[in-house]
């Protein structure tokens, strides 16, 4: 009973943190603002999440759970079109994308609390992207790369577009640019389907 209440309280705090981030952005998402939203003191919040980074990692884990729900084929592999939808969805939530990007940048330093999360996440994401590419193109993409060789490039495009969009949203149309990238992956030449 106590454990269930603690789990429920942690989930409530994560939801509140998501709201605060969406409203105020990464920098404005203070522990005191989140604590106030859930009716706790900052000290009470620290009982559940000892640092702001720990709370933000929990927010990112929750985001990943939401992002990976639905949109899969019967074998559990995402459809490639879902990636384009996810990019569009991310364009509507800059606070979460900013949190992800800021923590990702900081996590490359030794000993950062989010480093393990991102290392584990990228291993999983590369494997997932390889599965998506294999389901779409088979063992070789039109350019000749295997899905495993192309997966890190796909991840780099997704993350790189997010950084460019955050820095200059008026100049970078993230969903359109990702659509252009997907067009590069389509087969060309005789017998290839025509682009819409």
UniProtKB/TrEMBL annotation:
Residue ranges for the DNA-binding region feature of this UniProt entry: 30-49
Keywords, alphabetical: DNA-binding, Repressor, Transcription, Transcription regulation
SUPFAM superfamilies with a match to the protein in the record: Homeodomain-like, Tetracyclin repressor-like, C-terminal domain
Signal peptide: none
Gene3D superfamilies: Tetracycline Repressor, domain 2
One Pfam family this sequence matches: TetR_C_6
Domain named HTH tetR-type: residues: 7-67
InterPro entries in the record: BetI_C (IPR039538), Homeodomain-like_sf (IPR009057), HTH-type_TetR-like_transc_reg (IPR050109), HTH_TetR (IPR001647), Tet_transcr_reg_TetR-rel_C_sf (IPR036271)
Source domain of life: Bacteria
Protein name per UniProt: TetR/AcrR family transcriptional regulator
Protein source organism: Streptomyces sanglieri
């Amino acid at each position: 009973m106590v454990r269930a209440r603690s789990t429920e309280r942690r989930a409530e705090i994560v939801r509140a943190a998501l709201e605060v981030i969406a409203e105020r952005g990464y920098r404005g998402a203070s522990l005191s603002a989140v604590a106030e939203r859930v009716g706790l003191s900052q000290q009470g919040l620290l009982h559940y999440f000892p640092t702001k980074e720990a709370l933000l990692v929990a927010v990112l884990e929750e985001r990943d759970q939401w992002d990976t729900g639905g949109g899969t084929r019967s074998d559990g592999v995402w459809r490639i079109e879902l990636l384009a939808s996810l990019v569009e969805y991310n364009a509507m939530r800059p606070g979460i994308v900013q949190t992800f990007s800021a923590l990702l940048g900081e996590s490359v330093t030794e000993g950062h609390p989010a480093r393990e999360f991102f290392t584990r996440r990228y291993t999983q994401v590369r494997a997932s992207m390889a599965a998506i590419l294999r389901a779409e193109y088979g063992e070789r993409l039109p350019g000749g790369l295997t899905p495993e060789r192309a997966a890190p490039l796909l991840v780099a495009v997704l993350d790189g577009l997010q950084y460019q969009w955050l820095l200059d949203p008026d100049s970078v149309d993230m969903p359109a640019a990702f659509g252009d990238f997907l067009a590069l992956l389509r087969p060309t030449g005789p017998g290839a389907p025509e682009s819409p």
